[in-house]
Amino acid sequence: MHFAIHLSFVLAVLFCLTGNGKAGMIDQDRNRLQQLQLQSRRTGDVNSQVRIAYEVIEIFDKYKGRSASDVAKEAQLNTQVNDFKSKTVIVDGVPAQGGVWAILGMVRSASDAVPDNVKQDAQNLLKSSSKALVETLTNYLFNTVLAKFGLGK
């Protein structure tokens, strides 16, 4: 009799631990998404914006294909994510920017021939597309996937 009681307590504790572990991870991801969305709205730095976008994409990849997801919307978002990834190159967690030779000034790169206003327009385009992607992905995750788990905004 005592063995059965002890076993039931152990099983109950194990059940609670496994259930909270999964919910805890989802809750952490929800909190991180809220932080990233806020940072994305506030930042003016292109490199930070791209880093934020890639972190949101990582969370999106983690939850896509779940039973709560909308297949058509998810396919559209996958296309946007793939398009964004193909147009931005990340090296060691930051956008590629030329390398050591450009920094030392030993070799003039082709980017030096590009007018500053064109460079600025390209940075603004990258920043705005990153912000739009972050907003779209976070809204989708909050309203569709995480809401099904009872953890939406």
UniProtKB/TrEMBL annotation:
The record's InterPro entries line, in alphabetical order, gives: Turandot
Classify the main location.
secreted
Q: Which UniProt keywords apply?
A: Immunity, Innate immunity, Secreted, Signal
**What are the subcellular locations of this protein?**
Secreted
GO terms under biological process: cellular response to heat; innate immune response; response to bacterium
- Please indicate which superkingdom the organism of origin belongs to: Eukaryota
GO terms under cellular component? extracellular space
Signal sequence segment? 1-23
Q: Which family does it belong to?
A: Belongs to the Turandot family.
Its name, as the record gives it, is: Protein Turandot Z
Can you name the source organism? Drosophila gunungcola
High-level lineage: Eukaryota, Metazoa, Ecdysozoa, Arthropoda, Hexapoda
